Hints:
The protein has 253 residues and is α+β, with helices and mostly antiparallel strands. It folds into two domains: 4-99 and 230-245, no CATH class; 108-214, Immunoglobulin-like, CATH 2.60.40. It is built from six helices and eleven strands. The strands form three sheets. Strands 1, 3, 4, 5, 8 and 9 form a six-stranded antiparallel β-sheet that branches. Strand 6 and strand 7 form a beta hairpin. Helix 2 (31-50) runs antiparallel to helix 3 (55-75). The chain is elongated, with a radius of gyration of 25 Å.
Amino acid sequence: MLPAAYTWSLTAIAIAAGLAMLWVLGRFSNAEQAALAKRKIRANLYAFRLYADEPALIFRAQKQLLFWNARYLASMLRPTAVLLVPATLLMFGLDAVYGHRPLSLGESAIVTAQFSGGTDMGSLVPTLEGRGIAVETPCVRIPSERQFCWRVRAMGATSGSVILRVAGVSFSKSVRAGAPSGVVAERRVTSLFEWLRYPGEPRLPSGPLRWIGVSYPGATVDVFGFGAHWLLWFVGVSLLTMLLARKRFGVTF
Length: 253
């Protein structure tokens, strides 16, 4: 479980995110269309009870209900489009901080080197060297996945690194160990898109090596003495913030 400071910082970010989403909803959604759609939806739901013995009217109410549900969703398209990219990047960043923890003293993990399709795996003889990190096993080849794997172990309560040497080229990857602090980068990657998903370290140079990863243990945040996944707490706090502050922003759900 991560220290309590992580819970407080995640709570502050969730509140800020909830307020930002309310502002976007108020600024970019069509409030009049959404309100009209909700009234029509309620009216057609009441029709199910009023005309329970009239199949033709019930069928008409069902069609209208589908139509106005679609209109309501359409009124949310603009704010959803505005929020999509920043919300996705925020989730990636939060997962890098709250999703995993560093290795403890003596704890093992798997280091994986992933190569791109078309790589001649049989011709590669990679080696892995640890700096402050013990490499416990020889290389394990998984040709079907185009991967090479090693088991490593944290030798102390401080972070280290591993050096992958293959085809005369060296690549480094940090291995976090000790007390949680900041970003835990699961992978060091080549592509820009993957780097947005796994921030925290510079991108690898272009080539057959796609990424080097460390299988860090999953982390939980302290919620009233219980461990919870960071996303559950983040979503819960954000939704509660939106419910409590919606009138101030003139937003209705």
